[in-house]
Specification:
It contains 11 helices and 2 strands, in the order H-H-H-E-E-H-H-H-H-H-H-H-H. The chain is mainly alpha-helical and 227 residues long.
Length: 227
């Protein structure tokens, strides 16, 4: 019997795998499966995605190799990152490379501040005010880990205000490295001499002054004399 004219051609296997990888990645990025959560079982994914078991298996294996998923024997497959660059950066992060991390941070953050001063919206300014207030509250609380997270959130908010999606993605990839540099700088306690005021950076962005915003952002990460 000749095939029906309504039959849809079956895509090649490689294409099906690529499409499945894209679907899995999109669901992770959308927050359906947050970092730390377990993704559905293989039979469930086969049912939901409408592809074969081998296709699902290859797609999961590819994302595990990229550092987005982690397969734990006897437990399941978990989301360990939303960013394929982050595990690569983490593997390269060692104590003797902290100076390089700071240089990369400076390159990203100076340009982000410059762009944010030009492009910030009222919503961005409200978010910056909230992030700055949270950072100061965390400092007053005296807990290093909370302050590091609040500081990272403020810098991430500045990058978001730049409205450059590629810059935001690249900056997210150094998130763990960025936190490590701040943790190292703070030491075991939040002492007064380690406090760095970020209010002037936010003010420069609010004023729409790109060069002042860039200078303020760069000042936090100036290399030590002789470095």
């Amino acid at each position: 019997m000749p095939p029906s004219v309504d039959s849809a051609p079956v895509p090649p296997r490689g294409q099906r795998v690529r499409e499945t990888i894209t679907q899995l990645r999109q669901r992770i990025l959308a927050g359906e499966w947050p970092v730390g959560s377990r993704i559905p079982t293989e039979p469930r994914l086969v049912e939901e995605l409408g592809v074969g078991r081998n296709t699902v298996r290859e797609a999961v294996r590819a994302l595990a190799h990229a550092g987005v998923l982690e397969c734990r024997q006897g437990s399941g497959t978990y989301v360990v990152s939303t960013d394929e660059l982050a595990p690569v950066v983490a593997r390269r992060l060692t104590d003797d490379r902290m100076a390089e991390v700071i240089e990369v941070r400076r390159a990203f953050e100076v340009e982000a501040a410059r762009l944010a001063a030009r492009r910030r919206t009222p919503e961005d300014l409200a978010a910056l005010d909230g992030a700055l207030a949270a950072r100061e509250a965390a400092w007053r609380g005296g807990r290093v880990a909370e302050f590091v997270e609040a500081d990272a959130a403020l810098h991430t908010t500045v990058v978001a205000a730049a409205h450059n999606s590629m810059l935001a993605e690249l900056y997210a990839s150094i998130g763990a490295a960025m936190r490590s540099t701040v943790t190292q700088a703070m030491g075991d306690a939040l002492t007064p001499e380690r406090h760095v005021d970020h209010a002037r950076l936010v003010a420069a962005i609010r004023a729409g002054d790109p060069e002042l915003a860039a200078r303020e952002a760069g000042a936090f990460l100036e290399p030590a004399p002789g470095a």
